[in-house]
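From: lab user (bench 3)
To: helpdesk
Subject: output format question, protein + pyridoxal-5'-phosphate

Hello, I'm new to running complex predictions and I'm not sure whether the block I got back is the full result or only part of it. Here's what I submitted:
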Amino acid sequence: MSQNEILFKRALQSIPGGVNSPVRAFRSVGGTPRFIKRAKDAYLWDADGTQYIDYLGSWGPAIVGHAHPEVVAAVQRAAESGLSFGAPTEAESQLAEAIIARIPSIEKVRLVSSGTEATMSAIRLARGATGRNKIIKFEGCYHGHADSLLVKAGSGLLTFGNPTSSGVPAEFVAHTIVLDYNDLDAVKAAFAEYGQEIACIIVEPIAGNMNLIKPAEGFLAGLRSLCSEHGALLIFDEVMTGFRVGPQGVQGLSGVTPDLTTLAKVIGGGMPVGAFGGRADIMDQIAPLGPVYQAGTLSGNPVSVAAGLTTLEILSRPGFYEHLQTQSAKLVAGLQDKAKAAGVPFCADSVGGMFGLYFRDTVPTSFAQASEVNHEAFKTFFHGMLDNGVHLAPSSYEAGFVSAAHSDEIIEKTLDA
Ligand code: PLP
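Helpdesk reply: Thanks, we reran it on our side. This is the complete output you should expect:
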Protein backbone atom coordinates (compact mmCIF):
# COMPACT_ATOMS: atom_id res chain seq x y z
CA MET A 1 0.00 0.00 0.00
CA SER A 2 1.36 3.44 -0.87
CA GLN A 3 1.83 6.13 1.78
CA ASN A 4 -1.00 8.11 0.14
CA GLU A 5 -3.31 5.10 0.51
CA ILE A 6 -2.31 4.55 4.15
CA LEU A 7 -2.92 8.21 4.98
CA PHE A 8 -6.26 8.18 3.17
CA LYS A 9 -7.39 5.10 5.08
CA ARG A 10 -6.44 6.81 8.34
CA ALA A 11 -8.12 10.09 7.36
CA LEU A 12 -11.37 8.28 6.58
CA GLN A 13 -11.58 7.32 10.26
CA SER A 14 -11.30 10.85 11.55
CA ILE A 15 -12.14 13.40 8.86
CA PRO A 16 -15.54 13.49 7.11
CA GLY A 17 -14.87 12.41 3.54
CA GLY A 18 -11.30 11.60 4.51
CA VAL A 19 -10.07 14.93 3.05
CA ASN A 20 -11.54 13.89 -0.30
CA SER A 21 -13.82 16.94 -0.40
CA PRO A 22 -14.81 18.51 -3.72
CA VAL A 23 -12.51 21.46 -3.16
CA ARG A 24 -9.47 19.96 -1.50
CA ALA A 25 -9.09 16.64 -3.32
CA PHE A 26 -5.85 16.41 -5.23
CA ARG A 27 -6.14 13.25 -7.27
CA SER A 28 -6.64 11.73 -10.70
CA VAL A 29 -10.05 10.39 -11.66
CA GLY A 30 -11.07 7.73 -9.14
CA GLY A 31 -7.59 7.79 -7.60
CA THR A 32 -6.45 8.14 -4.03
CA PRO A 33 -6.01 11.75 -2.93
CA ARG A 34 -2.39 12.82 -2.75
CA PHE A 35 -1.28 13.94 0.69
CA ILE A 36 1.23 16.73 0.37
CA LYS A 37 4.25 16.50 2.63
CA ARG A 38 6.51 19.25 1.36
CA ALA A 39 6.46 22.32 -0.87
CA LYS A 40 9.34 24.42 -2.15
CA ASP A 41 9.39 27.13 -4.85
CA ALA A 42 7.09 25.86 -7.64
CA TYR A 43 7.10 22.23 -6.47
CA LEU A 44 5.04 19.97 -4.23
CA TRP A 45 5.92 16.46 -3.04
CA ASP A 46 3.34 13.96 -1.89
CA ALA A 47 3.60 11.30 0.81
CA ASP A 48 5.07 8.82 -1.67
CA GLY A 49 7.74 11.31 -2.70
CA THR A 50 6.19 12.07 -6.10
CA GLN A 51 7.02 15.57 -7.31
CA TYR A 52 4.51 17.97 -8.92
CA ILE A 53 4.84 21.37 -10.52
CA ASP A 54 2.23 23.38 -8.68
CA TYR A 55 -0.14 25.96 -10.17
CA LEU A 56 -2.46 26.18 -7.19
CA GLY A 57 -0.02 27.88 -4.82
CA SER A 58 -1.90 26.69 -1.71
CA TRP A 59 -5.11 28.08 -3.25
CA GLY A 60 -3.33 31.32 -3.98
CA PRO A 61 -1.18 32.47 -1.08
CA ALA A 62 2.14 31.11 -2.37
CA ILE A 63 2.64 33.97 -4.84
CA VAL A 64 6.36 34.31 -4.07
CA GLY A 65 6.81 30.52 -4.31
CA HIS A 66 6.54 27.94 -1.55
CA ALA A 67 8.79 28.29 1.52
CA HIS A 68 10.43 31.49 0.29
CA PRO A 69 13.53 31.91 2.48
CA GLU A 70 12.72 35.51 3.46
CA VAL A 71 9.18 34.56 4.49
CA VAL A 72 10.41 31.55 6.45
CA ALA A 73 13.02 33.69 8.25
CA ALA A 74 10.43 36.38 9.11
CA VAL A 75 8.07 33.75 10.53
CA GLN A 76 10.83 32.22 12.60
CA ARG A 77 11.92 35.60 13.99
CA ALA A 78 8.32 36.44 14.90
CA ALA A 79 7.68 33.02 16.46
CA GLU A 80 10.73 33.38 18.68
CA SER A 81 9.18 36.56 20.11
CA GLY A 82 5.87 34.85 20.99
CA LEU A 83 3.20 33.17 18.93
CA SER A 84 0.23 35.34 19.77
CA PHE A 85 -0.46 38.00 22.37
CA GLY A 86 -4.22 38.58 22.34
CA ALA A 87 -3.35 42.26 22.37
CA PRO A 88 -2.50 44.82 19.70
CA THR A 89 0.83 44.14 18.02
CA GLU A 90 3.31 46.34 16.20
CA ALA A 91 3.29 43.91 13.28
CA GLU A 92 -0.48 44.33 12.93
CA SER A 93 -0.11 48.10 12.48
CA GLN A 94 2.71 47.58 10.02
CA LEU A 95 0.67 45.23 7.83
CA ALA A 96 -2.36 47.54 8.02
CA GLU A 97 -0.17 50.49 6.98
CA ALA A 98 1.39 48.46 4.16
CA ILE A 99 -2.07 47.62 2.78
CA ILE A 100 -3.28 51.24 3.08
CA ALA A 101 -0.11 52.52 1.39
CA ARG A 102 -0.69 50.23 -1.59
CA ILE A 103 -4.47 50.39 -2.17
CA PRO A 104 -5.81 53.96 -2.34
CA SER A 105 -9.49 53.07 -1.63
CA ILE A 106 -8.49 51.54 1.73
CA GLU A 107 -8.29 54.31 4.32
CA LYS A 108 -8.63 52.02 7.32
CA VAL A 109 -8.34 48.24 7.57
CA ARG A 110 -9.02 45.49 10.11
CA LEU A 111 -7.05 42.26 10.10
CA VAL A 112 -8.85 38.94 10.54
CA SER A 113 -7.80 35.32 10.04
CA SER A 114 -9.26 34.26 6.67
CA GLY A 115 -11.02 35.40 3.54
CA THR A 116 -14.32 34.12 4.87
CA GLU A 117 -13.99 36.19 8.01
CA ALA A 118 -13.15 39.23 5.88
CA THR A 119 -16.23 38.87 3.66
CA MET A 120 -18.55 38.08 6.59
CA SER A 121 -17.24 41.10 8.48
CA ALA A 122 -17.61 43.38 5.45
CA ILE A 123 -21.21 42.25 4.86
CA ARG A 124 -22.06 42.66 8.52
CA LEU A 125 -20.46 46.09 8.55
CA ALA A 126 -22.37 47.12 5.41
CA ARG A 127 -25.63 46.10 7.07
CA GLY A 128 -24.72 47.94 10.27
CA ALA A 129 -23.52 51.07 8.48
CA THR A 130 -26.54 51.40 6.17
CA GLY A 131 -29.21 50.02 8.52
CA ARG A 132 -30.45 47.91 5.59
CA ASN A 133 -30.61 44.16 5.10
CA LYS A 134 -30.69 43.13 1.46
CA ILE A 135 -27.56 42.08 -0.38
CA ILE A 136 -26.90 41.62 -4.06
CA LYS A 137 -24.48 38.87 -4.99
CA PHE A 138 -23.69 37.15 -8.28
CA GLU A 139 -24.17 33.52 -9.13
CA GLY A 140 -20.83 31.72 -9.25
CA CYS A 141 -18.97 34.32 -7.18
CA TYR A 142 -17.61 32.65 -4.08
CA HIS A 143 -17.18 34.56 -0.85
CA GLY A 144 -16.03 31.72 1.41
CA HIS A 145 -18.21 30.26 4.13
CA ALA A 146 -19.78 33.71 4.10
CA ASP A 147 -21.83 32.29 1.23
CA SER A 148 -23.93 30.77 3.99
CA LEU A 149 -25.22 34.33 4.52
CA LEU A 150 -25.83 34.77 0.84
CA VAL A 151 -27.83 31.92 -0.63
CA LYS A 152 -31.22 32.38 -2.23
CA ALA A 153 -34.22 31.18 -0.27
CA GLY A 154 -35.09 27.62 -1.26
CA SER A 155 -31.77 26.96 -2.97
CA GLY A 156 -31.37 23.22 -3.22
CA LEU A 157 -27.78 23.47 -4.38
CA LEU A 158 -25.11 21.57 -2.56
CA THR A 159 -23.22 24.79 -1.92
CA PHE A 160 -21.11 26.01 0.91
CA GLY A 161 -24.14 28.08 1.81
CA ASN A 162 -26.93 25.53 1.60
CA PRO A 163 -29.47 27.15 3.94
CA THR A 164 -30.63 23.88 5.42
CA SER A 165 -27.14 22.66 6.22
CA SER A 166 -25.78 25.97 7.44
CA GLY A 167 -28.58 26.62 9.91
CA VAL A 168 -29.03 30.17 8.64
CA PRO A 169 -32.41 31.58 9.70
CA ALA A 170 -34.86 31.84 6.82
CA GLU A 171 -35.35 35.57 7.19
CA PHE A 172 -31.63 36.06 6.67
CA VAL A 173 -31.48 33.92 3.55
CA ALA A 174 -34.48 35.73 2.07
CA HIS A 175 -32.46 38.95 2.07
CA THR A 176 -30.14 37.88 -0.72
CA ILE A 177 -30.74 38.76 -4.35
CA VAL A 178 -28.66 36.49 -6.59
CA LEU A 179 -28.09 37.83 -10.10
CA ASP A 180 -26.08 36.82 -13.16
CA TYR A 181 -22.51 38.08 -13.33
CA ASN A 182 -22.11 40.82 -15.94
CA ASP A 183 -25.88 41.43 -16.13
CA LEU A 184 -26.11 45.12 -15.24
CA ASP A 185 -29.74 45.36 -16.33
CA ALA A 186 -30.67 42.82 -13.66
CA VAL A 187 -28.89 44.94 -11.04
CA LYS A 188 -30.77 48.04 -12.22
CA ALA A 189 -34.05 46.12 -11.97
CA ALA A 190 -33.21 44.97 -8.43
CA PHE A 191 -32.52 48.56 -7.36
CA ALA A 192 -35.77 49.67 -9.03
CA GLU A 193 -37.66 47.10 -7.00
CA TYR A 194 -35.87 47.22 -3.64
CA GLY A 195 -33.96 50.58 -3.76
CA GLN A 196 -33.69 51.70 -0.16
CA GLU A 197 -33.54 48.16 1.24
CA ILE A 198 -30.25 47.19 -0.41
CA ALA A 199 -27.27 47.42 1.95
CA CYS A 200 -24.55 46.36 -0.46
CA ILE A 201 -23.40 44.59 -3.57
CA ILE A 202 -20.62 42.05 -3.04
CA VAL A 203 -18.75 40.97 -6.15
CA GLU A 204 -15.56 39.27 -7.23
CA PRO A 205 -14.43 42.05 -9.58
CA ILE A 206 -12.68 39.41 -11.67
CA ALA A 207 -14.34 36.11 -10.87
CA GLY A 208 -11.76 33.44 -10.12
CA ASN A 209 -14.23 30.97 -8.72
CA MET A 210 -15.96 30.38 -12.04
CA ASN A 211 -12.62 29.59 -13.61
CA LEU A 212 -11.73 33.14 -14.65
CA ILE A 213 -14.42 35.52 -15.83
CA LYS A 214 -13.61 39.14 -16.48
CA PRO A 215 -16.17 41.89 -15.95
CA ALA A 216 -17.84 43.10 -19.13
CA GLU A 217 -17.03 46.64 -20.28
CA GLY A 218 -18.82 49.07 -17.95
CA PHE A 219 -20.07 46.39 -15.50
CA LEU A 220 -18.01 47.46 -12.47
CA ALA A 221 -18.48 51.17 -13.21
CA GLY A 222 -22.22 50.50 -13.53
CA LEU A 223 -22.28 48.79 -10.12
CA ARG A 224 -20.41 51.76 -8.69
CA SER A 225 -22.86 54.32 -9.97
CA LEU A 226 -25.95 52.31 -8.99
CA CYS A 227 -24.61 51.92 -5.44
CA SER A 228 -23.80 55.65 -5.19
CA GLU A 229 -27.21 56.60 -6.56
CA HIS A 230 -29.09 54.38 -4.10
CA GLY A 231 -26.91 54.76 -0.99
CA ALA A 232 -25.76 51.12 -1.05
CA LEU A 233 -22.15 50.06 -0.48
CA LEU A 234 -20.00 48.39 -3.11
CA ILE A 235 -17.80 45.59 -1.76
CA PHE A 236 -15.03 44.22 -3.95
CA ASP A 237 -14.10 40.75 -2.76
CA GLU A 238 -10.43 40.78 -3.77
CA VAL A 239 -9.51 37.78 -1.63
CA MET A 240 -8.30 36.02 -4.78
CA THR A 241 -7.37 38.97 -7.02
CA GLY A 242 -5.82 41.29 -4.41
CA PHE A 243 -2.08 41.86 -4.98
CA ARG A 244 -2.21 39.17 -7.70
CA VAL A 245 -3.64 40.70 -10.86
CA GLY A 246 -1.58 43.83 -10.20
CA PRO A 247 -0.31 45.87 -7.25
CA GLN A 248 -3.73 47.42 -6.56
CA GLY A 249 -5.89 44.45 -7.49
CA VAL A 250 -8.81 44.78 -9.87
CA GLN A 251 -9.63 48.24 -8.55
CA GLY A 252 -6.25 49.41 -9.85
CA LEU A 253 -6.83 47.83 -13.26
CA SER A 254 -10.42 49.02 -13.65
CA GLY A 255 -10.20 52.43 -11.99
CA VAL A 256 -13.45 51.64 -10.16
CA THR A 257 -13.35 52.43 -6.45
CA PRO A 258 -15.31 50.22 -4.04
CA ASP A 259 -16.45 51.37 -0.60
CA LEU A 260 -15.07 48.24 1.06
CA THR A 261 -12.51 45.65 -0.05
CA THR A 262 -11.85 42.19 1.31
CA LEU A 263 -8.42 40.58 1.11
CA ALA A 264 -6.73 37.34 2.24
CA LYS A 265 -4.53 34.69 0.57
CA VAL A 266 -1.53 36.78 -0.64
CA ILE A 267 -1.56 39.11 2.39
CA GLY A 268 -0.86 36.13 4.65
CA GLY A 269 1.88 34.66 2.46
CA GLY A 270 0.63 31.16 3.42
CA MET A 271 -0.36 31.98 7.00
CA PRO A 272 -3.93 32.73 8.10
CA VAL A 273 -4.50 36.44 7.50
CA GLY A 274 -7.53 38.20 6.03
CA ALA A 275 -8.48 41.85 5.98
CA PHE A 276 -11.40 44.12 5.25
CA GLY A 277 -11.05 47.82 4.80
CA GLY A 278 -12.18 50.88 2.91
CA ARG A 279 -13.73 54.27 3.58
CA ALA A 280 -12.79 55.58 7.00
CA ASP A 281 -16.33 56.75 7.81
CA ILE A 282 -17.64 53.21 7.25
CA MET A 283 -14.77 51.48 9.04
CA ASP A 284 -15.33 53.80 12.02
CA GLN A 285 -18.70 52.09 12.51
CA ILE A 286 -16.69 49.32 14.17
CA ALA A 287 -16.66 49.37 18.00
CA PRO A 288 -15.49 51.20 20.07
CA LEU A 289 -16.07 54.12 17.66
CA GLY A 290 -19.33 52.64 16.34
CA PRO A 291 -21.83 49.90 17.11
CA VAL A 292 -20.47 46.99 15.02
CA TYR A 293 -18.55 44.57 17.23
CA GLN A 294 -15.60 42.88 15.58
CA ALA A 295 -12.67 41.02 17.13
CA GLY A 296 -10.90 37.69 16.80
CA THR A 297 -8.59 35.76 19.14
CA LEU A 298 -5.85 35.35 16.57
CA SER A 299 -6.46 38.46 14.45
CA GLY A 300 -3.22 40.28 13.76
CA ASN A 301 -1.10 37.63 15.48
CA PRO A 302 2.55 38.50 14.89
CA VAL A 303 3.60 35.24 13.27
CA SER A 304 0.95 35.25 10.52
CA VAL A 305 1.35 38.95 9.97
CA ALA A 306 5.14 38.61 9.57
CA ALA A 307 4.60 36.23 6.63
CA GLY A 308 2.16 38.66 5.02
CA LEU A 309 4.28 41.72 5.52
CA THR A 310 7.37 40.07 4.05
CA THR A 311 5.33 38.80 1.10
CA LEU A 312 4.04 42.31 0.36
CA GLU A 313 7.61 43.62 0.50
CA ILE A 314 8.74 41.05 -2.05
CA LEU A 315 5.79 41.92 -4.31
CA SER A 316 6.87 45.57 -4.31
CA ARG A 317 10.19 44.80 -5.97
CA PRO A 318 10.66 46.00 -9.55
CA GLY A 319 9.46 43.62 -12.23
CA PHE A 320 7.45 41.36 -9.92
CA TYR A 321 4.09 41.76 -11.67
CA GLU A 322 5.66 41.83 -15.13
CA HIS A 323 7.11 38.39 -14.36
CA LEU A 324 3.71 37.02 -13.29
CA GLN A 325 2.02 38.47 -16.35
CA THR A 326 4.65 37.13 -18.76
CA GLN A 327 4.76 33.64 -17.27
CA SER A 328 0.94 33.32 -17.19
CA ALA A 329 0.76 34.37 -20.82
CA LYS A 330 3.48 31.88 -21.84
CA LEU A 331 1.80 29.06 -19.95
CA VAL A 332 -1.62 29.79 -21.39
CA ALA A 333 -0.29 30.03 -24.97
CA GLY A 334 1.63 26.77 -24.57
CA LEU A 335 -1.37 24.93 -23.13
CA GLN A 336 -3.49 26.24 -25.97
CA ASP A 337 -1.09 24.64 -28.50
CA LYS A 338 -0.98 21.43 -26.49
CA ALA A 339 -4.78 21.18 -26.33
CA LYS A 340 -5.05 21.93 -30.05
CA ALA A 341 -2.57 19.16 -30.84
CA ALA A 342 -4.64 16.79 -28.66
CA GLY A 343 -7.86 17.86 -30.41
CA VAL A 344 -9.41 19.04 -27.12
CA PRO A 345 -11.98 21.90 -27.13
CA PHE A 346 -10.08 24.55 -25.25
CA CYS A 347 -9.40 28.25 -24.79
CA ALA A 348 -7.63 30.18 -22.09
CA ASP A 349 -7.17 33.62 -20.58
CA SER A 350 -4.92 35.25 -17.99
CA VAL A 351 -4.51 38.40 -15.94
CA GLY A 352 -1.44 39.07 -13.80
CA GLY A 353 -0.69 35.87 -11.89
CA MET A 354 -4.09 34.28 -12.52
CA PHE A 355 -5.16 32.11 -15.43
CA GLY A 356 -8.31 30.37 -16.59
CA LEU A 357 -8.36 27.22 -18.75
CA TYR A 358 -11.72 26.54 -20.37
CA PHE A 359 -12.69 23.22 -21.89
CA ARG A 360 -15.04 24.88 -24.36
CA ASP A 361 -14.60 26.94 -27.50
CA THR A 362 -15.10 30.45 -26.13
CA VAL A 363 -14.07 32.32 -22.99
CA PRO A 364 -17.15 32.36 -20.71
CA THR A 365 -18.77 35.59 -19.55
CA SER A 366 -21.39 34.14 -17.19
CA PHE A 367 -21.80 31.38 -14.64
CA ALA A 368 -24.03 29.43 -17.03
CA GLN A 369 -21.33 29.49 -19.71
CA ALA A 370 -18.59 28.68 -17.21
CA SER A 371 -20.58 25.58 -16.25
CA GLU A 372 -20.78 24.37 -19.85
CA VAL A 373 -17.46 22.57 -20.05
CA ASN A 374 -16.49 19.38 -21.78
CA HIS A 375 -15.88 17.29 -18.68
CA GLU A 376 -14.33 14.41 -20.59
CA ALA A 377 -11.76 16.74 -22.15
CA PHE A 378 -11.10 18.30 -18.75
CA LYS A 379 -10.52 14.93 -17.12
CA THR A 380 -8.28 13.62 -19.85
CA PHE A 381 -6.21 16.75 -20.07
CA PHE A 382 -5.93 17.79 -16.41
CA HIS A 383 -5.70 14.38 -14.86
CA GLY A 384 -3.29 13.30 -17.57
CA MET A 385 -1.05 16.20 -16.64
CA LEU A 386 -1.41 15.43 -12.93
CA ASP A 387 -0.24 11.88 -13.59
CA ASN A 388 2.71 13.42 -15.43
CA GLY A 389 3.60 15.60 -12.42
CA VAL A 390 1.79 18.89 -13.05
CA HIS A 391 -0.92 20.17 -10.73
CA LEU A 392 -2.68 22.73 -12.91
CA ALA A 393 -5.88 23.32 -10.95
CA PRO A 394 -8.19 21.11 -8.94
CA SER A 395 -11.30 21.51 -11.03
CA SER A 396 -12.75 23.09 -14.15
CA TYR A 397 -14.21 25.99 -12.16
CA GLU A 398 -11.11 27.35 -10.46
CA ALA A 399 -8.47 29.75 -11.70
CA GLY A 400 -4.86 28.63 -11.51
CA PHE A 401 -1.95 30.73 -10.24
CA VAL A 402 1.55 31.52 -11.38
CA SER A 403 4.16 32.55 -8.82
CA ALA A 404 7.59 34.16 -8.75
CA ALA A 405 9.04 30.63 -8.79
CA HIS A 406 7.54 29.76 -12.20
CA SER A 407 10.67 30.24 -14.27
CA ASP A 408 10.93 29.63 -18.02
CA GLU A 409 12.37 26.21 -17.23
CA ILE A 410 9.35 25.28 -15.09
CA ILE A 411 6.93 26.43 -17.78
CA GLU A 412 8.80 24.37 -20.39
CA LYS A 413 8.72 21.31 -18.15
CA THR A 414 4.99 21.87 -17.67
CA LEU A 415 4.33 21.99 -21.37
CA ASP A 416 6.37 18.82 -21.90
CA ALA A 417 4.31 16.89 -19.32
N1 PLP B 1 -13.60 35.19 -1.36
C1 PLP B 1 -13.01 34.73 -2.47
C2 PLP B 1 -13.11 35.51 -3.73
C3 PLP B 1 -12.28 33.54 -2.42
O1 PLP B 1 -11.69 33.08 -3.54
C4 PLP B 1 -12.19 32.83 -1.21
C5 PLP B 1 -11.45 31.56 -1.13
O2 PLP B 1 -11.08 30.95 -2.08
C6 PLP B 1 -12.81 33.36 -0.08
C7 PLP B 1 -13.51 34.54 -0.18
C8 PLP B 1 -12.72 32.65 1.24
O3 PLP B 1 -11.44 32.74 1.75
P1 PLP B 1 -10.92 31.67 2.83
O4 PLP B 1 -10.87 30.35 2.14
O5 PLP B 1 -9.58 32.21 3.26
O6 PLP B 1 -11.89 31.68 3.96
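A quick orientation on your result: The longest strand covers residues 198-203. Let us know if anything else is unclear.
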